Amino acid sequence: MLERKSPLSQIRIMGKFGHFSEEIGLTIRESKDFTYLEMSFWDQAMPSLRSKFLELFALKDFPESGLTITLKGGRLIRSGPARLAYYGEPGPEDVLLAMVGGDEGSVVSLSHSRCALHLSGSKVKDVLERGIRVNLGESAFPVGANAFTEIHGMSVLLIRTGASDYELIFMRTTARNIWTWLTETAAQFGYEVL
Amino acid sequence: MSPKPQKFRTGGGRIDRLKPLRFKFDGHELYGYEGDTLASALLANGQHLVGRSFKYHRPRGIYTAGVDEPNALVGLGTKDQVTPNVQATSQELYTGLTAVSQNRWPSLKLDALSVNSLFSRFLSAGFYYKTFMWPAGAWEFYEKFIRRAAGIGKGTHLPDPDSYEHVHKHTDLLVIGSGPAGLTAALTAAEAGKQVILVEQDFELGGSLLNRPLTVGNISGEDWLKRRLSELEVFKNVTVLTRTTAFGFYEQNLVGCVEKVQDHLSIPNLHVPRQRLYHIRAQKVVLATGALERPFLFGNNDLPGIMLSSAAETYLHRFGVLTGHRPIFYTNQDAAYDFAFALKTGGTEVAAIVDPRRDIPSALFQKTRALGIPLYPGSRIVRAEGYQRVRKVLLQPVKSGRDGKGIWRDCDSVLHSAGWNPVVHLQSQRGIKPVFDPGLNSYLPGAGITADHGCAGSLAGYEETDAVVSQARKVAKYLIGQIKTAPRNYKKPVHDTPPVVSDNSPKSGKTFVDLQHDVTTADIAQAQLEGFKSVEHVKRYTTQGMASDQGKLGNVNTLELLANLKGEDQALLGTTTFRPPFTPLTIGAIAGRSVGAELSPTRLSPFHECHRRAGAEFITAGDWIRSWYYPKGGEDVIAAYIRETGAVRKSVGMVDVSSLGKIDIQGPDAAEFLNRVYINGWKALPIGKARYGLMLRDDGMVMDDGTTWRLGENHFFMTTTTTGAAAVMRHMEYLLQVDWPELKVNLTSVTDEWGGMAIAGPSSRKVLESSFQGIDFSTEAVPHMGFLEFESDGLPVRICRLSFSGELAYEVYTRAGYAELLWDQLMEGGKPHDMILYGSEALGALRIEKGHVAGPELDGRTTADDLGLGRMQSSKKAYVGNILKEREGLIAETREQLVGLMPVEGAVALKAGFILFEGDGSEPKGHGLGHVTSVTFSPALGRHIALGLLSEGRAREGTLIRAVSPVDDMSVDVKVCSPHFYDPEGERMHA
């Protein structure tokens, strides 16, 4: 198994940084060796694909647009009426490639093109709202919500995974800019890189 | 540290006398206390003279106690942390604060340019426009002197060492202002469970309650404030932002606010930004911005010691500072009397109260007399006198003529109040014009309440605190849907109000309507005489209201003055336009984190660290940071690229091509889609082969080019130019969504997914054979434009044989996370073949030698025919641009065509942009026949070469023309030739 190199590997230094006394405002943990797939479907294929997905992932409901369903080891992200993304542990790629026929849609692996950070802590929302314009309020962006948005002109996917937990997924070519923005912004609250 | 007693400091106030603060003004060490502003501390120390005026360099003192201050502007900080034009009235005091007065030389007390006052009759409105019009062309001479004399403060050219940031907030209700109205509105919404943000520009909440001894209901304002603040603390749904000014009110209830996070700290926290700019998107907004006191206009109204009555009251009540020991009050407001009485009963000698009204409420009249304060009803101040401080004023009856005699009264300060101007600025920014209210003799918001915002408190014309609180509660309730009847603005009964302008007689001395820009009532009158009738024209001609205070004090007086001069009803006169920002912003706050290397995003190749380790110099190409060249032994870029180019031609080199745009195209209609997008045919392209493609815009011009590989029956991999990638993706998404929705095609950008290196040169095949042993790279296995996909020890590899350099070449891709593994493998495989690394400079030289087009030629104005690619255009199908490319202008014989250019003297270098002219010896005129697009020194030819676009270019091959640069004053004889300088038959590429 080859090691996938993160674009942050040269700059991501473990430890506690910034301004803090007791409580660290933000904890940053990079997700590694994840799988990220983008799936687009033709409208008429959606009913049959819906059934296939429910069966494959043992789901009760198909996620609504803008929402995310947590799977065992991953997340199914509904980014649009006929668009889904899978983010999580490796595994389903081959199954999904086989499941989605060419007449139904397409599955593209973008695992190497993305960088992913798990962000948590009491100040995580304060940090995020310094770059993201989307309303991150409790009712507007509840646990499970996702947004394809941008930070400082760079595309990001933000998923709220808990009360104070988010996944931030972004393009690897802009990873250094995102990291600089994140750490400089978080320094005022104190942050820890795990 | 034990501070000296301060001459003007009294008891009381909200300052903390246990926390003295040391600061410097013009090099003098002074003391204040925590809770002071710089202005209150200066006044406490008896420093009334704080600056010089803009044009006439007249001595100026502190006029207000807030953001309306026109005079007390200071430079704050030292060296690289200088902030000019800071209002001393808004600057919180801290230990170590260093302030300097502005616009004076050599000192504040003795300013050489105060001589300007002697020539003031020549410096009236329009002086510059009229004086420097002649002789023609002399402006450049005058300009440097005028610019040197202009302006007030001086900034620094050093980089700003501070950091700034932007914050995006969403809320149910935003309340702007924390006086009685703002606090009431915020609490009302908070109690209803709404998310509330309360912003206050001051460092304390309370607004007018901090400044005057008010009562609310039957309790003191101070107690009422304490109760409301303790209630506010309970609500978790309320965010309070002090030191935060709402500077702009935009569509969709977007409000821009700036928070001065660390401007009050002696030792800033390095991890915390100096200022924050908030973008607050609110469902509803309550404007509770209050009102600013209006000054009277009289001669020499700018002398130090003359200030607004409410400012003097603020300094006394909030900061425990007496602004004078013998003040004269000049007012038409009952409330000012209360302050005069308080001063008198506190032991201050009140020299007089001058009131233009004849009918003064009897209670005030009686109390004034009882306290022994001289009262002058029906009178006005015509003129003040003094040197660097007011010493006396001339009083006249209001009804006397311009030459009416008066009496002089001695004083050391004049505290004046001509009424209140609601702060209508924010609502006006939304395009709602303020309306003149005769009762208030000022302007109210054009709409008291709308569907998304409401005006509360004194902004809406309410004066009594109880009425303010009651109205603000109703505004909040209406906006959050608790009541259905909208509260209205308060309309005061109309009284016979005497004018605020005392006199326009030259004998009265200068009467300043705009103190910061030294605009006088005479300037306004002159503008009228010269035909500037509209308020907007008067503003621009006189610059009234255009200083950093935006005319907060002077605008309303100017409008009254204009109405009087024109003999028009002020209600019909209109106002100038209020625009953001309400108070000045630092450029740093606007920029936020978009500075320096973070100005805009930059993209790094997955091989970036490899390049760095190999000693690459980098260059920006669009968003990308690319390896430019790899210097050896102190080489500069020229020496390096010549060496690198030569090595590629001789043996082999490797260059990073990861920045090329890459798009995954899938679907049963993918081939049909490409057939419509590109000018050439795609349906017959076999799986395993790639093809060069050219796409046009709708208008027939070339949009982009690249190769596209057929991975499967319904699966393609497209590459685009580096800079064209995003535009191509947008273009194709548009076509699928709008023009051809029936096509089943999905597009996914995979630019970041794949890292790629091009191996180019005669030995490139050998490098691949060494790198991926066991794979057949023969021409039979991998022909030109053929590709392979395989795994090498688990490494996924895509290889396509194609060439940008004109040499036998391959593009080798792998998944981005494995890019460094691929690099290592290729470098190892390249060792036996002396493979070198080459950068984008050599890449450019190689493609120019070969005559391949790139960005400079794909400039959006060239057709396929222009570029010599016309034969690619299929006549058997329709494609984007195929109709409009046949327009008369696009097929004209005189169109500029791609040609090669060789200077007759090979050592002479051309530059991109040189204009091409006939070579017949005629004088170059006009736009010429075309221009040089790309230049390089060709190591293969041992001379400088270029590509260019030349009218009827192909027909001119073999002729001599001239390349001219008026900028460089150069004219070079060049020979027109084929753009394919090197290996025109392509033998090397197909080897």
The CATH fourth-level homologous superfamily of the largest domain in chain B = FAD/NAD(P)-binding domain
Strand order of the biggest β-sheet of chain A: 1-12-2-8-11-10-9
Average of the residue pLDDT scores of chain A: 93
CATH topology of the largest domain in chain B: FAD/NAD(P)-binding domain
Which structural class should the secondary elements of chain A be placed in? Answer: alpha+beta
Biggest interface in this structure? A-B, 49 and 48 residues
Radius of gyration from the alpha-carbon trace of chain B, in angstroms: 38 Å
Shape of chain A: globular
Amino-to-carboxy terminus distance of chain B? 88 Å
Shape of chain B: elongated
**Portion in beta strands of chain A:** 35-45%
Percent of residues in helices of chain B comes to: 10-25%
CATH class of the largest domain in chain B: Alpha Beta
- The top-level CATH class of the largest domain in chain A is Alpha Beta
Characterise the protein shown here.
The complex is a heterodimer of chains A (194) and B (991). Chain A is an alpha+beta fold and 194 residues long. Chain A folds into 2 domains: 99 residues, 2-Layer Sandwich (Gyrase A, domain 2), CATH 3.30.1360.120; 75 residues, Alpha-Beta Plaits, CATH 3.30.70.1400. In chain A, 19% of the residues lie in helices and 36% in strands. In chain A, β4 and β5 form a beta hairpin. Chain A starts with 14 loop residues before the first strand and ends with a strand. Chain B has 7 domains: 147 residues, 2Fe-2S iron-sulphur cluster binding domain, sarcosine oxidase, alpha subunit, N-terminal domain (Ubiquitin-like (UB roll)); 226 residues, FAD/NAD(P)-binding domain, CATH 3.50.50; 121 residues, FAD/NAD(P)-binding domain; 65 residues, Arc Repressor Mutant, subunit A (Orthogonal Bundle); 151 residues, 2-Layer Sandwich (Gyrase A, domain 2), CATH 3.30.1360.120; 89 residues, Aminomethyltransferase beta-barrel domains (Alpha-Beta Plaits, 2-Layer Sandwich), CATH 3.30.70.1400; 99 residues, Beta Barrel (Elongation Factor Tu (Ef-tu), domain 3), CATH 2.40.30. Chain B contains 23 helices and 50 strands. In chain B, the strands form 13 sheets. In chain B, strands 8, 9, 12, 13, 14, 15 and 28 form a 7-stranded mixed β-sheet that branches. A 6-stranded mixed β-sheet of chain B has the order 41-42-43-40-34-44, sandwiched between helices. A 6-stranded antiparallel barrel of chain B has the order 45-48-47-46-49-50. Chain B is elongated. In chain B, 53% of the residues are buried. The mean pLDDT of chain B is 94.
